[in-house]
Amino acid sequence: MRWLLLFGGIFLFAILWFGYLGWWLWQKVTALAATAAELERVLASAPSARQDVGSNGHAAKHRFDGRGPHRRPAGAGQRG
């Protein structure tokens, strides 16, 4: 009888504990979803980043061709 009470108490505690954890996690998930929806609403009302694009359709000052110092051709930047 003592074992039944012991394991029954542990089982009841586990059910209550995991129920509480599930409720807590649900609160966090719904808060995160509300934050994401609010962020999406704010970003949708923000001005577009495409305003940087010039008349030719290219944002020339923001272009990057992928060449860094390690990708220059041999002899580039050498004097005389």
Question: What is this structure, in a nutshell?
Answer:
This protein has 80 residues and is mostly helical. It has one helix and no strands. The chain has a domain at 1-29.
Describe this structure in words.
- Keywords: Membrane, Transmembrane, Transmembrane helix.
- Helices cover 55% and strands 0% of the residues.
- It has a domain at 1-29.
- The chain is mostly helical and 80 residues long.
Q: Can you give keywords for this protein?
A:
single chain, 80 residues, mainly alpha
Number of strands: 0
Helix-strand sequence:
H
Unreliable spans are none
* Major sheet details: none
Average pLDDT works out at 79
Distance between the termini: 97 Å
- The structural class is mainly alpha
* Radius of gyration of CA atoms, rounded to a whole number: 30 Å
> Percent helix among the residues?
55-70%
Q: What is the overall silhouette?
A: elongated
Hey, roughly how much beta strand do the residues contain?
A: under 5%
SS element count, helices? 1
